[in-house]
Specification:
The chain is an all-alpha fold. About 50% of the residues lie in helices and about 0% in strands. The chain has one domain (about 10-65): IscX-like (Arc Repressor Mutant, subunit A, Orthogonal Bundle).
Length: about 70
């Protein structure tokens, strides 16, 4: 089964970002970079314009949680 990712999958996106960007400290990522990285994930299928600051913050916090 192929897993697709949407903006509602903060934890799953964070897990993928940990694997794809192991040397990045998510505490210091710019939301523009985070948005671009998410939209270019192979399994990401949601509309790029459907995100907002709250969603990106949730993904960032999940990513921080994955690195601690």
């Amino acid at each position: 089964m192929v897993r697709t990712l949407t903006w509602n999958d903060a934890q799953a996106i964070a897990e993928v970002l940990v694997e794809r960007h192991p040397d990045v400290d998510p505490r210091y990522i710019r939301f523009t970079d985070l948005h671009r990285w998410i939209c270019t994930l192979p399994d990401f299928v949601d509309e790029p314009g459907a995100s907002n600051e709250r969603i990106l913050e949730a993904i960032q916090m999940a990513w921080i949680g994955e690195t601690n």
